[in-house]
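step=encode ok
step=design start
structure_in=
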């Protein structure tokens, strides 16, 4: 069962086509849209402001979403939030990527088709134009992204769309095996691509 908590009479909303891992925690004013993927141990804490994940967005393992009272924190359509990232009172544009362990602060806006590199710190109020590569602490726009880089990002997000479906249909809690089976199978899925070999994989 997904860990969902009402507070002050406000209950999280999860679309039936979204996958939320049972160890994730959703509190209060949270709206998870269609085809979203919420990873293990994600904390989506809508006890102050509203938190919205639009269609096809993913929020990966140990990510945190929160915001101040009266403010919305939004991940737009196909937004891609890498492992351990923190979003606080910000807006992540359509098809943008926030890399592993990056932090995006209040009133910051990450433009569509942009990438925030892993470990970056986006300060409060920063406005990032579409198709930007954002790097550093504090983060700065380094350059514009190429069409190939945006295609790479979209391919990775497509894998999370598929992962949401695979997780809903095949993931179940089991006992661990005590030995490795002979001819142990590997995970095979339709959209598997060698994305980890791409020059920008560190940003994910």
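sequence_out=
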């Amino acid at each position: 069962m997904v860990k969902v908590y009402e507070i002050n009479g406000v209950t999280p909303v999860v679309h039936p086509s979204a996958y939320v891992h049972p160890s994730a925690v959703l509190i209060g004013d949270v709206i998870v849209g269609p085809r979203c993927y919420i990873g293990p141990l994600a904390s989506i804490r809508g006890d102050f402001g509203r938190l919205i994940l639009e269609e096809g967005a993913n929020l990966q393992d140990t990510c945190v979403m929160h915001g101040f009272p009266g403010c919305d924190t939004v991940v737009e359509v196909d937004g891609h939030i890498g492992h351990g990232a923190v979003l606080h009172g910000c807006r992540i544009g359509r098809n943008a990527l926030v890399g592993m362990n990056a932090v995006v602060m209040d009133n910051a806006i990450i433009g569509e088709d942009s990438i925030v590199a892993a470990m970056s710190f986006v300060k409060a109020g920063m406005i990032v134009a579409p198709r930007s590569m954002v790097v550093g602490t504090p983060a700065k726009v380094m350059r514009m992204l190429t069409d190939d880089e945006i295609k790479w990002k979209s391919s990775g997000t497509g894998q999370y769309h598929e992962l949401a479906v695979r997780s809903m249909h095949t993931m179940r809690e089991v006992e661990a095996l005590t030995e490795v089976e002979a001819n142990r199978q590997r995970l095979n899925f339709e959209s598997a691509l060698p994305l980890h070999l791409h020059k920008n994989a560190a940003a994910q």
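step=design ok
step=annotate ok -> Confidence is low (pLDDT under 50) at residues 192-204.
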